[in-house]
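Tip: read the tokens left to right.
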């Protein structure tokens, strides 16, 4: 069963915290618990990167600043040099923030109003919390811009300052965090709008919210927990058809590479056999030797579908009227689990009445999804689409999101900017088809496939840089992406 932390809006997080405090929880105790996790994250980052134990706090006026001062006090006790820049006068700070400010001073911390690193190796962002809406202005905006000019790593508490925790909007400027240590539950704004560009690495910290209140949370989505993923089982005695037989309708004389990448994705995800039906005159010299290749023939496809386990349709077919007619006929006949991508999605958007087989996975990017919906893709509009069509949907992006009927949207917080390259989506399509052919349910196949694809992309970028990697490098990194899940 796919699991992960609930993703909430800022308002929902505040509602639950208020309920808990009204029920007897202590805001001060919450702050103490949160600060322990924040201080631990700072220590881990500095030790891992072999940095001097010198930290600069940028402190606002609310409880986020209180968290920062409290974490600073803990770091002082660990023999760190910690100083703070106060963005607002102390009289404007919340009562609890003022208390923690004074404790920080008593323990030897330094507080000024100057923007000066003074040899610090890390900035702890404690300016604006998840309740922030609007624009950062004045010294706060100046401090945010200055923090980027320093070139120092920035660890944001709960949310990068200046980012809207519900929408991901940035009114003027916002912190570009190296790491965001979110408190309790991840915020929806991390993954919407500009959020993903600002949050950096995500680390969750428990601040002591009682379980009974966590159960009352009204989440907008779930954040994938990779430990809930399971690979399809492999029997020692299986043969190639049992391992998964995929039929692919992909590739044309103009775009043979899409079919090559998709079919390679099928084989590298564990399927035992792939048979590719391409448009006539599509070259085969791009294909792996293991790929069985034929020209498109509806009768042959019907014959082979009797023993196949999954279909892959779309990559590299083109958008001629003839392809549209071909797809209309083909999709009406398919009864097997199906992955639909690329040019097939183009025609589906033009023909919304086309019926799709059960256990279909669609893999649009945002532009393709907008055409399928005839409006902007949001969590709500995409979920409504899958409920109506009874399909599983992978909305490709940064990050990618999986939608499934009756389930909350699942956000996969992985991937690399270098994956925005021609053919990357074709590789994903192949991986998904390969997993479906191994008898995985569509939701599980989609979650696992998107995760493996994203991790392989990260690994490829680590080896080759985000600038230099190409789609085939994702394929080459897939074995390494699989390895942790084999344990």
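Filled-in amino acids:
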């Amino acid at each position: 069963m796919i699991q992960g932390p609930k993703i909430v809006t800022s308002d929902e997080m505040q509602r639950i915290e208020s309920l808990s405090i009204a029920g007897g929880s202590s805001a001060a105790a919450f702050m103490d618990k949160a600060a322990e996790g924040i201080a631990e994250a700072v220590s881990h980052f500095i030790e891992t990167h072999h940095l001097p134990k010198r930290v600069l706090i940028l402190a606002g006026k609310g409880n986020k600043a209180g968290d920062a001062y409290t974490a600073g006090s803990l770091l002082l006790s660990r023999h760190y040099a910690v100083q703070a820049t106060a963005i607002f006068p102390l009289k404007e700070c919340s009562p609890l923030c003022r208390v923690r400010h004074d404790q920080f001073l008593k323990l030897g911390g330094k507080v000024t109003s100057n923007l000066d690193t003074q040899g610090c190796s890390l900035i702890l962002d404690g300016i604006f919390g998840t309740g922030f809406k609007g624009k950062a202005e004045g010294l706060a905006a100046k401090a945010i811009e200055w923090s980027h000019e320093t070139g120092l790593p920035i660890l944001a508490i709960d949310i990068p300052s200046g980012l809207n925790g519900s929408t991901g909007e940035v009114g003027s400027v916002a912190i570009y965090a190296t790491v965001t240590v979110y408190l309790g539950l991840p915020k929806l704004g991390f993954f919407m709008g500009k959020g993903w560009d600002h949050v950096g690495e995500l680390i969750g910290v428990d601040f002591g919210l009682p379980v009974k209140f966590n159960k009352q949370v009204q989440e907008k989505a779930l954040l994938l927990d990779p430990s809930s993923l399971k690979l399809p089982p492999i029997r020692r005695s299986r043969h190639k058809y049992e391992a998964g037989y995929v039929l692919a309708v992909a590739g044309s004389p103009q775009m043979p590479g899409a079919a090559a990448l998709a079919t390679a994705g099928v084989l590298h995800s564990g399927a035992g056999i792939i048979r590719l039906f391409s448009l006539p005159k599509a070259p085969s010299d791009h294909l792996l030797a293991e790929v069985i290749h034929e020209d498109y023939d509806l009768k042959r496809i019907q014959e082979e579908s009797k023993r196949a386990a999954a279909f892959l349709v779309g990559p590299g077919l083109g958008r001629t009227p003839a392809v549209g007619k071909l797809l209309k006929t083909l999709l009406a006949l398919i009864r097997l689990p199906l992955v639909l991508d690329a040019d097939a999605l183009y025609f589906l958007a033009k023909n919304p009445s086309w019926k799709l087989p059960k256990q279909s996975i669609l893999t649009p990017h945002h532009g393709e999804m907008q055409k399928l919906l005839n409006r902007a893709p949001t969590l709500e509009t995409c979920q409504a689409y899958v409920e109506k069509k009874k399909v599983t949907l992978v909305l490709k992006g940064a990050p990618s999101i999986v939608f499934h009927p009756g389930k909350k949207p699942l956000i996969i917080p992985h991937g690399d900017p270098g994956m925005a390259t021609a053919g990357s989506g074709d590789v994903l399509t192949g991986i998904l088809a390969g997993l479906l052919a191994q008898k995985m349910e569509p939701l599980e196949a989609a979650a696992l496939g998107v995760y493996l694809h994203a991790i392989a992309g990260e690994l490829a970028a680590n080896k080759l840089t985000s600038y230099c990697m190409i789609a085939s490098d994702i394929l080459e990194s897939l074995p390494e992406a699989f390895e942790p899940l084999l344990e």
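The chain is about 40% helix and 15% strand. The two ends are 18 Å apart (CA to CA).
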